[in-house]
């Protein structure tokens, strides 16, 4: 399954959805089309599994952070998100568009919930806010996703540029929310 998912990612990155077929995925993975269909009933199922893999990888990295110093942890979270987005920017954008088309937002719900819990835990260390920490965590997730998705990712291949923009937005939001 891992080989098929990585092959799907490579096919998407190389040719976009025009070349994204189960035959191309199987060929790239070095498996028969029958083997692909043994694991996935269709191309959309491969895509949903790929969305889930990427979301889970990000959630695992964020949830594993040590939260001794909230600001260092927050900056590390931002760095991880930036690296994740910049590691494979074309794949990230294509999967984001497919997530909506396939109504696969629920697939990412478990990973998003794990990320939200990590952020809430971090916010509880920071102090008190006029809004519930769950609301602030959701806002921060929306801010980072928006900047990551809409920002000039291709123009700035260096993840530190995106990280810096995310730092400004997140730290600015938290500073205003703490007032």
Automatic annotation (TrEMBL):
Claim: ATP-binding is one of the keywords in the record: no
Keyword match Phosphoprotein: no
Keywords attached to this entry: DNA-binding, Repressor, Transcription, Transcription regulation
Occurrences of domain HTH tetR-type (ranges): 1-58
The organism's place on the tree of life at top rank: Bacteria
Gene3D superfamilies: Tetracycline Repressor, domain 2
Residue spans binding DNA: 21-40
Entry protein name: TetR/AcrR family transcriptional regulator
Organism for this UniProt entry: Paraburkholderia strydomiana
Lineage: Bacteria, Pseudomonadati, Pseudomonadota, Betaproteobacteria, Burkholderiales
């Amino acid at each position: 399954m891992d080989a098929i998912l990585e092959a799907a990612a490579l096919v998407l990155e190389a040719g976009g959805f025009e070349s994204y077929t189960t035959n191309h995925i199987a060929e790239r993975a070095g498996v028969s089309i029958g083997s692909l269909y043994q694991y996935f009933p269709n191309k959309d199922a491969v895509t949903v599994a790929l969305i889930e893999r990427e979301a889970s990888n990000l959630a695992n990295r964020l949830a594993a952070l040590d939260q001794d110093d909230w600001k260092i942890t927050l900056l590390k979270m931002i760095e991880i998100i930036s690296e994740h987005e910049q590691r494979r920017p074309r794949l990230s954008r294509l999967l984001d568009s497919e997530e909506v088309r396939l109504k696969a937002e629920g697939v990412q719900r478990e990973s998003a919930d794990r990320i939200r819990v990590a952020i809430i835990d971090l916010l509880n260390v920071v102090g008190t806010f006029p809004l519930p920490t769950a609301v602030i965590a959701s806002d921060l997730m929306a801010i980072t996703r928006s900047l990551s998705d809409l920002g000039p990712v291709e123009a700035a291949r260096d993840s530190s540029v995106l990280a810096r923009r995310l730092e400004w937005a997140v730290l600015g939001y938290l500073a205003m929310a703490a007032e």
